[in-house]
Amino acid sequence: MTTDVSAPRQDSLRAKLLALDCRAFEAVASRHWPGADRFLPRLSRSANHGVLWFAAAGAIAATGSPRARRAAVRGVASLALASVGINTVGKRSVRRARPLLDSVPLMRQLKRQPITTSFPSGHSASAAAFATGVALESRAWGAGVAPVAGAVALSRVYTGVHFPSDVLAGAALGAGAAFAVRGLAPTRAQLPSPGRPRADAPALPGGEGLVLVAEAGGRADERTKALREALPRAEVITCERDAMAAELEKAAARARALGVCGGDGCVNAAAEVALRQGLPLAVLPSGTLNHFAYDIGVEEPRDLCRAVEEGGAVAVDVGRFASPDDADAVDAGAAIDGRTEGIFLNTFSVGVHPELVRGRERWAHRLGDRPAAVLAALRVPRSAREPMSAEFRGRRRPLWLLVAGNGTYHRYGLGPGRRLDMADGLLDLRIVHGGHRPGARLLAAALAGPAVRSPAQASVRLRGLRVDGISPGTVVAYDGEVTEVRGALVLDKLPEALTVYRPLPATG
Description:
Elements: H1 6-30, H2 36-46, H3 51-61, H4 66-93, H5 122-137, H6 139-158, H7 164-184, E1 210-215, H8 219-230, E2 235-239, H9 244-254, E3 257-262, H10 264-277, E4 281-285, H11 291-296, H12 301-310, E5 313-322, E6 341-344, E7 347-351, H13 352-367, H14 369-383, E8 388-392, E9 395-406, E10 409-410, E11 418-419, E12 427-433, H15 438-448, E13 457-462, E14 465-478, E15 481-501
Parallel strand pairs: 1-2, 1-3, 3-4
Antiparallel strand pairs: 5-6, 5-15, 7-9, 7-14, 8-9, 9-12, 10-11, 12-13, 14-15
């Protein structure tokens, strides 16, 4: 007969840890910090149901910085995952009673005592999840949120509702939830940046030689103000959207580098002028989506200012569309207005997507860009009665949507698509086939992502494509702009045709 000595040892170790936990609780509960008796209980209550963290996320996002908005979204997503895990599994796995309040002064006790089990601390999990999620996207914002999160965790022991081990376990689970969210949707820092091929561009100390044209109003005013402070020698011209094309032409005549501050449509217009004049392009994003600027690695004025002063630049491909009769004669950067030829830096589309763009423009001045885009997305499938008919590769096919991306879009987890190589020479084609219920087909294609082949969609990468048999008056969209085409289309690439400023990684 053998005696199992491990069980008594485990019980003894468990008893020692519980005793240590109780002594730590008593030390915190009986200790008095000046001002904490009023502050910490209020702070603890403010974190009920995540109210404190939702308010913090709103304040962070309101700064307007893309990195700040991503940090706020990641923090909330991490908090949500942590809350679900704590409330469905954590609280039910270890049914530990709450601490006795005998040693906790009455003035610091919560008016409403929690009725759930003690282990682990949900408040601490939410605090750690939010702070860690924010920090994974933005170290600066994470450093600002961390002390508040630590104070919330401390308040749970100070008010007597949790043992220290409850708080530590909750914080660990919350941080784990933030890293789990990062696994599903990687941060931008995890993804390689499109830093090749490098291109020669003049370094402009203080911005001397840079002429930047900005769309008047809104976010552009804040961004150009920051650029003027960082690059005092740069010339900044502010104009209305209707005058943008003319001002870009004037600016190009006297610039060493042409700059633009606006959304993707304004960037497209500036790229067309820069291509024709052989100038490097400096992009300062201030629109709603800013796909091109973000994909090349320029999010903030400081990113562009560093690149301009150091001469950091890359060569990027430019997509081109043209009618077949003019395809052989189209020059890089040919004028777009009133013609069926042009360039695109992000995407070109035909089918229901141009109608979505047109619908968004119809409502944007009343509702704002994002609400207008949602409204257009809801209305377009309803108004689409018949799929368009087009012929390519010798077959006539019905389709609801054809999108050509300028470069390959990669999708990581649940995050949005992003281009990691802006000079791969490829068009990333996405086709949603024609058929009944366009709304369901488009939704299925969006949820499945471009990598999934199905009866509803197909995805392929080509260097060029010809589409024939397009009905007169068919609307196409390119970088948020719309025009009409007829007959046929030729899509191809201008490889490494445009030089664009972007901060390059340090080499050591």
